[in-house]
Amino acid sequence: MEPQRLDKLLSGTGRWSRREVKLLVKQGRVLADGRPAPSADAKYDPETVRLTVDGETLRLRAHTWVMMNKPAGVLSATEDGRGRTVLDLLPPELQKLELFPVGRLDKDTEGLLLLTDDGQTAHRLLSPKYHVDKVYFARVEGQVDGEDCRAFEQGMTLGDGTVCRPAGLKPLPAEHGCLVTLREGRFHQVKRMLAARGKPVVYLKRLSMGKLPLDPALDPGQFRLLTQAELAMLTDSFPTARQMFNF
């Protein structure tokens, strides 16, 4: 793996800010492979270096990934003068890491929201060209039928001219709702597509991104770090070049 700055590696643990890391290094409390780190901007390979602070060996990760069950009433933003954001739900040690939401959920939408400092992977999860499915449960007024499903499968042009790519729609009559699968994320897209079919959404929750499902043990507002296995699920969600270009 490409070497990274020491202050980035240590701040990525969620325990110290970069300014605090500089002080730790100055005080000689940070050892890299048994030797005092020379500076906070010294670079090390996170997969091979052994870092200790005050004698405690640290577990390193190149990037931080948080899974949250976003509650209704909270904004998917890093900051906003109109109300609380998802970052306000995190403890101080995670707020220091400059995390951002991977895409947005409407203020009144619940469910799976990822937060990270990994811009490259976040872009791939959101880009339509990588075909990463996002699955939502929607409760609607009325009942979704076969005509609605065919309209989603063919792609839709909304009243304002917005062109929506083909999407999946599966009725769930027992739950008075449906499952919607998107490979893009236009503004209020699920709500607008269903409203265009005369089925206004009364409740919306994102269930998964790619192969990664929302942890059912997380109540609204709760969060946790992703496991290594879950990070692998995200990577596995990207199609191979052969799949993307139909080789």
Task: Walk me through what this model shows.
- The two termini are 30 Å apart.
- The chain is an alpha+beta fold and 247 residues long.
- It has helices at residues 6-11, 18-26, 92-95, 119-126, 146-154, 189-196, 228-236, 241-245; strands at 4-5, 30-32, 35-36, 43-44, 51-53, 56-57, 65-70, 100-101, 110-116, 134-140, 156-157, 163-164, 168-172, 177-182, 201-209, 212-213, 223-225.
- A hairpin with an 8-residue loop joins strand 8 and strand 9 (110-116).
- Strands 7, 8, 9, 10, 13, 14, 15, 16 and 17 form a 9-stranded mixed beta sheet that branches. The chain has a 4-stranded antiparallel beta sheet with strand order 3-2-5-6, with no helix packed on it.
Number of continuous helical runs = 8
What are the segments in which pLDDT stays under 50 over at least 5 consecutive residues?
240-247
CA-based gyration radius: 21 Å
Sheet-strand content, in percent, reads 25-35%
Shape: elongated
How many strands, what sense, and barrel or not for the largest sheet?
A: 9 strands, mixed
Percent helix, as a range, is 10-25%
What is the CATH class of the largest domain?
Alpha Beta
Number of strands: 17
Q: Any idea how many domains? A: 2
- What's the SSE pattern? EHHEEEEEEHEEHEHEEEEHEEEHH
Which architecture of the largest domain would the CATH scheme give at its second level?
2-Layer Sandwich
CATH homology superfamily of the largest domain: Pseudouridine synthase
Helix/strand-derived class? alpha+beta
Q: Which fold name corresponds to the CATH topology of the largest domain?
A: Pseudouridine synthase
Q: Would you tell me the overall average pLDDT? A: 89
Distance between the termini: 30 Å
